[in-house]
């Protein structure tokens, strides 16, 4: 796995460096550390990056330090597009309300503009031992679960698959049972969501990762955040907002909503690490 | 497998549409002609004399005729005949929207009882009434204040007035003939019956909108932006004239008859604005500028309340509605309280 860690010397990006270095160690990654300083900013701001680089090199992780000057968001996007990274790690200050509206969010900008998956380090940062995977119970969620499974195996973490049923019946003949069912009941009944959750649990089991599935009922964003708090998860994992055509404008960007509202680290999965990508079938020579 | 929908023949849709239009015009004339005879009943026996009475009356009437649109049209007809004053007509239209939502709840309640107390079936009705009441509770005071301040009190609509005169030229002989045969109150009641039938014919005349083939085909599964669903509810209801019909158009999108609550909440908010477009047409056909202004103020107020909610405070509002929905459907006692309020409040308002 190839990882890009990013910092501008501010405390929240330094925390991201530290978390990212733990992920890099666990996944046996090669690491690039991007240090972006503003013109006139003291070189001392690069010291934490140099310390992390030394620590990683000491345990045999290959590290390259990259220095840029300019704005963090723009330089991270430029670097992430220049090389095939599997994961970009960046910190978030966690601005809210009017301040975020005016100043924007560097993490959100990066997430929306880089081709790689992005780990946004914010809020309380723990050991990354409990992962909560937000599942839409469709094919797109398989990618998210695979990435989370890979990460969980490397970190020795457990994975909880969360699906939120926010649907309401619109007609008398609606299939009401599914709207009240638990994950176990959905799996037993073989509903669309149940089939998907069963497949993802089997995937986790095959990877040797401890996993379970839960279903909550209510508004998707609220239930994800509530489960994150109630279960005291260390990392929320969600798929990136990838919708083709006009739907890109019509459909809500839930990954952005989670990223901005969460009080803990969020991983936005856009693609699988290169070594996990399914290999093309070999031509059979008869 | 999706169910195969049989396409209605074009001639039948046209016939339904034209018959509905003719009945709509005749019924308005009947209600206006008969409204004068209703004054002693409304103001004397039922004591519909103030805004609260009118709100409760519109609410109960909509429950009785199982639809809001005929009652809203009756309100503008009563205003046009000087049986109601503008603030009362405004309140009666508000009541008609509340009553229309109560009907959805009532239908769900009956279904839930028949299906061995499947309370999940009630959620659409509860949601509909929650959304309507949350908006109308703000629309009512705002609209009454605007009417009191004389907003749009003297609109000049020569085109509509001309159209009304043209229609009346054909309609007046028929109405005079009927007025000679029946008492006024009977003309009004007949008018309400005919306009209800006309809305039914309009529903039959609607072409099916192939939403499945558009980018909205994933509405049951994906979470759409609230602004998008709000606009969609506004436009589709403008085209179909009825909230229940426009919501019904979403049903075939899902094989399991579901929709995400994130999508239906802004959709109904948008629909609640444009659903009064038929009442606006009724007011215009009556040729009464006061009736037109009351309906326009109602639509404006609904937009003035809903738009900031959607654009600035949607998440908290959505959360409030969703939490209220959960509380109401959590236990029989909670639901009984909600149902009691929904059907006893209009009676209480009349008795005030």
Q: In a nutshell, what does this entry contain?
A:
The complex is a heterodimer of chains A (286) and B (352). Helix content of chain A is 42%, strand content 22%.
Note down, in words, how this protein is organized.
The complex is a heterodimer of chains A (286) and B (352). In chain A, helix 6 runs parallel beside helix 9 and helix 8 crosses helix 9. In chain A, strands 3-2-1-4-5-11-10-6-7-9 form a ten-stranded mixed beta sheet, sandwiched between helices. Chain A is built from twelve helices and eleven strands. The longest helix of chain A has 17 residues. Chain A is 42% helix and 22% strand. Chain A is of the alpha/beta class and 286 residues long. With 352 residues, chain B is mainly α. Helix content of chain B is 76%, strand content 1%. Chain B is built from 14 helices and one strand; from the N terminus they run H-H-H-H-H-H-H-H-H-E-H-H-H-H-H. In chain B, helix 1 packs across helix 6. Chain B is globular, with a radius of gyration of 20 Å. Chains A and B meet through strand 8, helix 7, helix 10 and helix 11 of A and helix 5, strand 1, helix 10 and helix 13 of B. Strand 8 of chain A pairs antiparallel with strand 1 of chain B, so a sheet runs across the interface.
Mean pLDDT of chain B: 83
Point out poorly predicted stretches of chain B: 1-5
The greatest interface between two protein chains, and residues involved on each side, is: A-B, 30 and 36 residues
The structural class of chain B is mainly alpha
> Low-confidence runs of chain A (pLDDT<50, min 5 residues)?
279-286
Oligomer class: heterodimer
Number of strands of chain A: 11
Question: Pairing-aware structural class of the strands and helices of chain A?
Answer: alpha/beta
Please state the overall shape of chain A, judged from the principal axes of the Cα atoms.
globular
Tell me the radius of gyration of chain A: 20 Å
Measured by DSSP, the beta-strand proportion of chain A falls in 15-25%
Q: How is the main sheet of chain A built?
A: 10 strands, mixed
Please count the helical segments of chain B: 14
Mean pLDDT across all residues of chain A, rounded? Answer: 87
The gross shape of chain B turns out to be globular
Helical segment tally of chain A? Answer: 12
Order of helices and strands of chain B: HHHHHHHHHEHHHHH
The tally of beta strands of chain B, per DSSP, is: 1
Strand content of chain B: under 5%
Order of helical and strand elements of chain A: EHEHEHEHHEEHEEHHHEHEHHE
Largest sheet features of chain B: none
């Amino acid at each position: 796995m190839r990882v890009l860690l990013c910092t501008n010397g501010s405390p929240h990006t330094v925390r991201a460096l530290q978390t990212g270095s733990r992920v890099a160690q666990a996944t046996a990654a090669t690491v690039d550390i991007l240090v972006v300083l503003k013109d006139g900013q003291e070189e001392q701001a690069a010291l934490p990056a140099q310390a992390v680089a030394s620590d990683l090199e000491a345990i045999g992780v290959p590290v390259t330090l990259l220095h840029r000057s300019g704005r963090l968001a723009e330089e991270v996007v430029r670097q992430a597009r220049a090389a095939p990274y599997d994961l970009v790690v960046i910190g978030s200050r966690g601005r809210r309300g009017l301040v975020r509206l005016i100043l924007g969010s560097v993490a959100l900008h990066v997430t929306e503009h880089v081709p790689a998956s992005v780990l946004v380090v914010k809020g309380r940062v723990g050991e990354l031992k409990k992962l909560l995977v937000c599942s839409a119970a469709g094919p797109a969620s398989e990618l998210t679960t695979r990435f989370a499974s890979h990460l969980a195996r490397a970190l020795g973490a457990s994975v909880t698959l969360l699906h939120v049923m926010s649907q309401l019946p619109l007609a008398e003949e609606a299939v009401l049972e599914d709207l009240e069912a638990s994950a176990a009941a959905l799996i037993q009944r073989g509903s669309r969501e149940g089939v998907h959750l069963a497949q993802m649990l089997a995937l986790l089991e095959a990877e040797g990762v401890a996993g379970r599935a839960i279903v909550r009922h209510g508004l998707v964003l609220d239930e994800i955040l509530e489960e994150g708090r109630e279960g005291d998860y260390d990392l929320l994992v969600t798929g990136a907002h990838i919708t083709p055509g006009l739907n890109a404008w019509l459909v809500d960007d839930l990954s952005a909503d989670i990223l901005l509202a969460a009080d803990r680290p969020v991983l936005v999965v856009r693609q699988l690490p290169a070594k996990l990508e399914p290999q093309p079938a070999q031509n059979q020579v008869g | 497998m999706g169910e195969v929908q049989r396409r209605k023949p074009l001639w039948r849709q046209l016939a339904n549409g034209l018959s509905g239009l003719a009945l709509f015009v005749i019924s308005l004339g009947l209600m206006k002609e008969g409204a004068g005879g209703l004054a002693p009943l409304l103001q004397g026996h039922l004591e519909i004399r103030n805004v609260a009475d009118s709100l409760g009356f519109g609410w109960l009437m909509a429950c009785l005729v199982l639809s809001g649109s005929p009652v809203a049209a009756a309100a503008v007809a009563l205003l046009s005949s000087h049986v109601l004053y503008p603030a009362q007509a405004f309140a009666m239209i508000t009541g008609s929207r509340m009553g229309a939502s109560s009907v959805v709840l009532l239908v769900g309640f009956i279904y839930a009882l028949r299906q061995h107390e499947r309370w999940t079936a009630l959620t659409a009705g509860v949601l509909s009434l929650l959304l309507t009441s949350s908006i109308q509770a703000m629309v009512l005071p705002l609209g009454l204040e605007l009417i009191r301040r004389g907003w749009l009190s003297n609109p000049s609509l020569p085109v509509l007035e001309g159209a009304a005169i043209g229609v009346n030229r054909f309609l007046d002989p028929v109405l005079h003939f009927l007025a000679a045969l029946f008492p006024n109150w009977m003309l009004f009641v007949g008018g309400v019956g005919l306009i209800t039938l006309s809305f039914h014919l309009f529903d039959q005349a609607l072409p099916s909108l192939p939403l499945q083939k558009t980018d909205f085909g994933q509405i049951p599964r994906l979470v759409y932006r609230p602004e998008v669903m709000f606009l969609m509810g506004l436009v589709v209801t403008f085209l179909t004239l009825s909230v229940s019909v426009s919501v019904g158009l979403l049903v075939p999108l899902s094989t399991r008859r579901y929709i995400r609550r994130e999508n239906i909440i802004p959709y109904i908010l948008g629909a609640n604005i444009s659903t009064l477009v038929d009442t606006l047409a009724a007011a215009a056909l009556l040729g009464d500028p006061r009736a037109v202004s009351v309906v326009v103020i109602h639509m404006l107020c609904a937009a003035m309340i809903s738009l900031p909610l959607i654009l600035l405070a949607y998440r908290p509002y959505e959360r409030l509605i969703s939490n209220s929905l959960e509380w109401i459907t959590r236990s029989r006692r909670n639901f009984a309280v909600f149902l009691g309020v929904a059907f006893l409040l209009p009676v209480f308002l009349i008795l005030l």
